[in-house]
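Bench log, entry 3. Co-assembly request; chain sequences pasted below exactly as received.
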Amino acid sequence: MEDKLYSEDHTDKEEKEFTLSVLTEDKAGLLNNITIIFTRRKINISSLNVSNSEVAGVSRFTIVTVTTREKAEKVVKQIRKLVEVLGAFVYELDQIYYQEIALYKVPTKVFLNGNSIESLIRNSGARILVIEQDHIVIEKTGHKGETHDLYKKLEPFGLLEFVRSGRVAISRSKRKTEAYIKELENSESNRLSIKDF
Amino acid sequence: MMNTSQLEIAKVPKATTSKISGSEAVIRCLLEEGVETVFGYPGGAIMPVYDALYRHVDRLTHVLVRHEQGAAHAAQGFARVTGKTGVCIATSGPGATNLITGIADAQIDSTPIVCITGQVPSHLLGTDAFQETDVVGISMPVTKWNYQVSKPEEIPYAIARAFYIANSGRPGPVLIDITKDAQFGELDFKYEKCERIRSYHPYPILDESKIKEAADLINQAKRPYILVGQGVIISGAQKELIAFAEKVGAPMASTLLGLSAVPVSHPLYVGYLGMHGNYGPNVLTNECDVLIAIGMRFDDRVTGDLDRYAKQARIIHIEIDPAEIDKNVKTTVAVNADAKQALVSLIKKVNSNQHDQWIEEFRKCEKTEQETVTRHELFPKSGEIKMAEVVRRVSEMTKGKAILVTDVGQHQMIASRYYRFDETQSNVTSGGLGTMGFSLPAAMGAKMGKPDRQVVAIIGDGGFQMTIQELGTIFQNGIDIKILVLNNHFLGMVRQWQQLFFDRRYSFTELNNPDFQLIAQGYNIQTQKVDKREDLDSAMKKWLDHKGPNLLEVIVEKEENVFPMVPSGESVSNIRLK
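Structure output for the full assembly:
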């Protein structure tokens, strides 16, 4: 037997951003079930998004949290234990495609002072969502850094309101949700069969 | 989007049965699940169910407790000795919140119970109606699953799921909250047992390659050591465990909840683990080369300081709950499976072996413990009565065949140390939650579950007074349990900690107790009290031989300490013998 039992990976203890993707049945109250797993361990949720998935009746939670890999994995294991959870996965940034959307409300009058803001919007890959007499709403999709950049740029013009959505993410893996659920439906793990001893 | 309940209901074919009320359906569901005994307490929001129950008393025994916490603990006691799901019923609001302690206890100790609570009518939900509490919200962190029924046609679906979830995989408590209008409303009743939920996979598929890896480690081991948890009892793997241990020649030690999985007299059984466990089983954890943990969760009361726990050993963890694997102790080989299933497979792959020298080390430690602790505890020559000598007498008089239901504290540790279990499913105690007041109601449930077995409840004077009102339930139903109150006029375990770690500042731990004799008599329960060693044998004989419930109060040494002890946060190696 070799002497070293297992190598303790110190990167496990480093705090970083994790994106959790959770597939669930559509059940009222399940959000609470999931969030208490975080609160109990004093882990903060940075962003959370719930939507339907490509499979009818199946919801997808996308949760962003900053913690250690060890804690993230333990949380995911606890989430998997919830009866209505079909699957839970933890990803780092290089394993997903992800976006957030931000809305910025600025006074209409800033556009009247020349076209600097218009080029700013164009160059930021943002677009104007609505123009009203007293305000304009700008929309930008991107990573948090990008929407934050635009925020910084619009700030001097007198931002009236700002909001950023939770992250939405899909994994880079080839797995198909539908096939994954089919597998669950046919799994033998619903009951125990032991051949006699 | 349809929710799951609607989806599931849509699948149930509409049978041509006549309509029945929701409350009648609740009772029929219980009967369909083979329930014979329920524990409960009526109240406004659950009255329709109680009305239906009234028509079925010939088939369904209802035990009226004196407090809903008692109903939950009784259901736990029932479940722990039978392996069947315990059932309790309570009303909304305070009835439901009173169940919570028992539910939390069942959650942490993996006990299958189904709790049915009444709820205000659905149109009043969220209005702060009389006796309205969000019990689904409150119980969420302490249930394996919960569900609020607000339509009568959801009842069979919800209850079928409840029983399936509560008692499959790693068992746990389930709560079904039923609005009053759903109880009054009508449905076409058709019952189908739940056998599959696509999002719930209680029995992980056994990975044979892991069994092979585990067997390889065990076959090379010089000092293998088996830790036995409650998972062995839950999965019914006692026989397989013993066969496995005998084949590989490894010593076995038990966690608090694993007690009685192996008879104490088994030659490979070396004792009890944890903070107040035996000396050898604790210190030798840090001497073994392969640790085989079966159906246990490395609780902090077992491991002490994790950074100094079994660091030298390769660790095999056989565990049904994937979330327990690598939670506290990093494993070398994780076998994520039912304990029995894993053992059946593992036995075939391990070589026959013997490790006499290694086992001899346990025996040496046992001798040390005997000389420094056990002997003085069991055979004191003078002074006040010690808890251990009383427990050992119970053990001898019942030949280790009683169901022992203990409360929480010093007496619990002493009972776990000195009762020589000879039959399995005989240890009922509150382990993870440490719920004082557990024993008396849990003992009632245990007796209802196993009426042919002797049930002994051992309780301290503190815990006794937390659920003492259940003497009324015992009296009314003539539940034949033997109650042993070890009275030291102290909250002994807290006092012990105050003595050892808080410079003897006995902050609110001394109890001025009522006359327990008079209280028992008030409930028409036979009783005796002993404060002299020479009276112990005859009183105990009378107590155990009596037909019907009987209380024995023994005045024990006031400031006795439980040793050995692994102080909180210490390594198991640094267990104190005094």
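The longest strand of chain A covers residues 96-107. Residues 115 and 121 of chain A are 10 Å apart (CA to CA).
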